[in-house]
Amino acid sequence: MSSYDVVVVGAGNAALSAAMAARENGASVLILEKAAEEEKGGNSYFTAGGFRFCHSGIEDAAADVLTDLSDAEREQIVLPVHDRNTFYDALMKVTHHQSDEDMAWRLIDGSRPAMVWLKSHRIRFIPMFGRQSFKVEGKHHFYGGVNIEAVGGGAGLVEMELAEALRMGCEIRYSSGATRLLQNQQRRITGLEVRGADGYEEIEAKAVVLACGGFESNPEMRVRYLGPGWDLCRVRGTRHNMGDGIRMAMDIGARPYGNWSGCHSVGWDISAPPYGDYEVLDNFQKHSYPWGIMVNLNGERFVDEGEDLRNLTYVKFGREIMSQPFRTAVQIFDQKTIPLLRDEYRIKQVTKYTANSMEELAGELEINPQALAGTVAAFNAACQPGENNPSILDGVTTEGLAINKTNWALPINEPPFEAYVTTTGISFTFGGLRIDDVGAVQDLSDRSIPGLFAAGELVGGLFFENYPGGSGLMAGTVFGKRAGEGAAEYVNGGA
Ligand SMILES: Cc1cc2nc3c(=O)[nH]c(=O)nc-3n(C[C@H](O)[C@H](O)[C@H](O)COP(=O)(O)OP(=O)(O)OC[C@H]3O[C@@H](n4cnc5c(N)ncnc54)[C@H](O)[C@@H]3O)c2cc1C
Q1: pLDDT score for 495
Q2: 391 Cβ partners below 8 Å, 6+ apart?
Q3: Less packed terminus of the chain by CB within 10 Å, N or C?
C-alpha cells in the first residue's frame, strides 16, 4: 500500500495551495485528481484568475505582488485602495452580514500574505486591464475590487501552481478519484480509498486535505439542495465536482455548514454546452448588463441592472434568471454603450441578434413586439439627465418605474440595437463543511476530526446568497495554504 504524510484530494487552486504549503512544511504529499490530465485544474482552470485582496493602491500592490510592472506602466494605472474594511464591507454587504465573522477576517487578513506567498512560489500577476478598468484621460481607472489576475488567467494559474508543486516534490495521480475516508478506532484518519483506471485501491495517509470542489456538477444534488429547476442550468466549469468531498466527510460525521441552498451562478450564453468548454473558458458569461437593460421573454425588466458595480450583482442576477420564463434573459444595448461591452461579447460562439427597431428585434427574439417596444419606451422616458461614468456609481437613474435602474441609466435609442440571449450558468455551491482556524474539519459536536482538513469550494460559511467577485480563488489560497500547514503540523505532532 502506498503511504504519504498528506494526501490532498483535488488539483484546483485550493488543493494546489494546500499541497505546496504541506510540502513546504516538510510533509510528503500526494495529490489525487479524479479528472484525466487533459481536464486538469477543476473550476480554477476556467476562471479569469482574478483575485480580491487587501492593498492600498498601485504603489503598494506593485511592491510585492505586481512586481513585473515598469515605472511607466505604474503611472498609467489608477487603482483604488482596497483595504481590510473595503473587503469586509463588500463581503458583508452582498451576504447580508451572514458570512461567518471569524472566517471573513481570516480571509481578509490572510489575503495579502497569501498573494505574496503565491508570488514567492513563482505565480505571476498582472492588472486586469481588459475587464476591470476604463481608460479615462489616458489612464486606466480600475474599479470594483477585483483588479489583479494571474498571468494566463485561470489556466495560467493552474499551470504555474502545478509546476511549482511538482518542482517542490509533490506527486500527482490523475484519473484517481477519492471515494472513501479511512479511520482507526480513535477516529484518526489513516488514509483513503481511491478509484483509478484499474479499480479500487487504499492509500495510507497521516492526514487528508479535501479540496475537491462543491456539488455544482451534480444535477441530483443541485435539485436536492438548490431547489427545483436547478437540474436544468448550465455548468460553467468542470464536470467532476460531484460533491464527493462533502459526502465522504459527512459519511464520517462532519458538520454541514453555510448556505446549502445558495450558489454562485451568472448570466451565461444560452447556446453554451452543458459543462465548461476548454477553449471558450469563461467567455460564455455576459457581464456588461449594467450598460443596457435586461428583459425576460415577456419583454419585461426584472432587476435593477444598475443596482451596484457588476462585481457585486452578477451572482445574484444569475440566480434571478432561473426564476424567469424558460430561465432566459435578454440583454439589450444601443450604439452608445456597445463600445463598452467586455471582450466576451465579441467571441464567435455568441447568441446575438441585431436590428434597427425594437419591434424588429423582438421578432428575432420571439418576444411580443408591443411588449418589448413598450418596456423600452417607458424606460427611455424615465431616464433622468446626468453625467454617465461607467467606472463609478454615477447616480444616473430612471424615475417612476416599478423597477428603476439606479445607475448608468441611458436611453436605449441609437440603433442598430444588439441583443444577447442568456440563461443561468452555475459556477460553484456555497454550502459545505465546517473548518476551524487551522483548516481542520469539524464534526457534529464541533470537534476536529483528527487528520482531516479542508479548503476551497467545499467549505461552507463564507458566502451566502451572493458573492463579491474574486473571493473564490482568494479563499481557496488562504484556506488551502492554512489547511496544508495545519495538516503538516498535525503530522509532525503539533495538533
Ligand atoms: C467560469 C468560472 C469563472 C470563475 N472566475 C473566477 C475568478 O476570476 N476569480 C475567482 O476568485 N473565482 C472565480 N470563479 C470561482 C472559482 O472557480 C472557485 O472559487 C475556485 O476555483 C474553486 O477552487 P477549488 O480548488 O475549491 O475547486 P476546483 O478548482 O473546482 O478543484 C476541485 C478539483 O477536485 C477534483 N475532484 C472532484 N472530486 C474528486 C475526487 N473524488 N477525487 C479527486 N479529485 C476530485 C476536480 O476534478 C477538480 O479538479 C470562477 C468559476 C467559474 C466556473
Answers
A1: 57
A2: 133, 134, 136, 141, 142, 143
A3: N
Q: Tell the burial category of 175 from Cβ atoms under 10 Å away from its Cβ (0-12, 13-18, 19+).
A: middle
- Number of structural domains found in the chain: 2
Does some domain include residue 239? no
Give the model's pLDDT for residue 312. Answer: 86
Domain termination site, one of 425, 443, 466: 425
Residues 68 and 108 in one domain: yes
Q: Which residues contact 11 (CB under 8 A, 6 or more apart)?
A: 31, 32, 33, 35, 40, 41, 42, 158, 162, 172, 174
The H-assigned helical ranges of 269-357 are 310-322
Pocket test for ligand 1, best of 7, 8, 39, 47 (most atoms within 8 A of CB): 47
All residues at 6 or more sequence positions from 445 whose CB lies less than 8 Å from its CB, including other chains: none
**Nearest residue to 53 (alpha-carbon basis) of 470, 482, 455, 484:** 470
Q: What count of other Cβ atoms lies within 10 Å of the Cβ of residue 303?
A: 18
- 205 and 286 assigned to the same domain: no
Q: Of 400, 425, 450, which residue sits at a domain end?
A: 425
What residue numbers bound the domain in which 465 lies? Answer: 3-216+430-491
Q: Are 116 and 150 part of one and the same domain?
A: yes
Query: What pLDDT is stored for residue 22 in this prediction?
Result: 98
Distance 385 CA to ligand 1 centre (A): 43
- Expressed in angstroms and rounded, the spacing between residue 44 Cα and the centre of ligand 1 is 4
In this structure, are 457 and 358 located in the same domain?
no
Give the residue carrying C-alpha cell 453625467.
387
Residues 403 and 483 in one domain: no
How much distance in Å is there from the Cα of 208 to the middle of ligand 1? 18
